[in-house]
Amino acid sequence: MERKNSLPAANALLLAVVALVGLNLRPFITGVGPLAASVSAETGLGLQGMALLTLVPMLLMGVFAFAGPSLQARFGARRSVVAALAVLSLGSFLRLFVATGWQMLGTAALLGLGAAIVQAVFPGIVKLRFPRHVGLVTGLYSAMLMGGGALGALMAPLIAAPARNWHAGLAWMAIPALLAAVLAARCLPRDGTPQAGGRAAAVLLKRPRTWLLMACFGLVNGGYSTVVAWLAPFYREHGWTSASSGGLLAIMAVAQALAALLLPVLAGKREDRRPWLWLTLAMQAAGFAALAARPEAAPVLWAALLGAGLGGCFSLSMIVALDHLPDPAEAGALSALMQGGGFLIAAMPPWIAALLHDLTGSFLAGWLLQLACIATVTWLYWHVDPRSYESAIRPPTLRKELPIETAPSA
């Protein structure tokens, strides 16, 4: 259990970096939905083509998350994060000039690459710099990540409307990404001796627990990617405007941010996080069931329920992965692998939902698919008992592969 002593004042600037980095990892995804009609009309992307704007970044977040431990060992965490944030800024800036579907997909790939590297490396930095406050700082990081999603959904139509140009509604995101790169370069600690994250990753891939965490993270985030891609178009089909449907997505993201920040604090009072994970899954199930059965009854409430469930589950999933190992490099490697496999899984549901929509003329089947995924994750998390962490990661016959190390104090 985490100690409750206060964070040193010297870490305040580093916490600002945590917040600003998290803020930049979702706007480029959530900003597309409210502008989907305009983007589709100019680039020629159909419903399944628009789904690729979510699928491609998610795939890259998965593929390059596996490379995170090796990048950190070879280039260092600080250099990797700064370079990735610069790539995020460039990808958003290039959206000022895209005119075709392929160009739009190219920027999505560039943005997914930048976000993937940050997400793979950054949890290890949190574990290293704040070992006694992993839950609190991970909650802040996750909350800002979700808050960035709200910002993207809200600002994209607001900036695009007066400019009468959807390009501006997406390209403005280059500014906070560049600011985050500059602040990270100045404030993140210098890279020291290379750590053993790459070797740990190879060993962890042999553990069934790693694959279980991947499956849980992927199925839950498949719900997130589906909602981000199709909640606004879903309500556009019900007669909502771009701004109002984007506002609904922003409400969902705000609820995500609040839950991502608050639930880790509440869950930190006990070692077993599963009751809180099951609570978040119940909220997701209620939200998706409501979208399927009564979408117009209380849209704001449905969006808030989904957001709270998705945001809280994301944050707690990250903490559970970091809880498994005391060493920052090894814990970061496990988190990167969980995200790698997870995002590969999460990339597919938006495209599947688009395909089902083309076949049935409705998003109903897509919402029902997410209910099945939630039921699966609820059962899988039953096996993630904190008493099993040690044996699941370091079986008695293989403990020499991952020697126990002690994290530095913050």
**Outline, from the CA principal axes?**
globular
How much helix is in the residues?
over 70%
Tell me how many strands there are: 0
Strand portion: under 5%
Class from secondary-structure proportions: mainly alpha
Low-confidence stretches: 1-6, 404-410
Mean pLDDT: 83
H-E string: HHHHHHHHHHHHHHHHHHH
Main β sheet profile: none
SS element count, helices: 19
* Radius of gyration of CA atoms, rounded to a whole number: 20 Å
The CA-CA distance between the termini, in Å, is 16 Å
Descriptive labels:
410 residues; mainly alpha; 19 helices
Q: How would you sum up this structure in a few lines?
A:
The chain is mainly alpha-helical and 410 residues long. It has helices spanning 12-23, 27-30, 36-43, 47-65, 68-75, 77-94, 101-129, 134-163, 166-171, 174-187, 197-204, 208-236, 242-267, 274-293, 299-323, 328-346, 348-360, 364-380, 389-393.
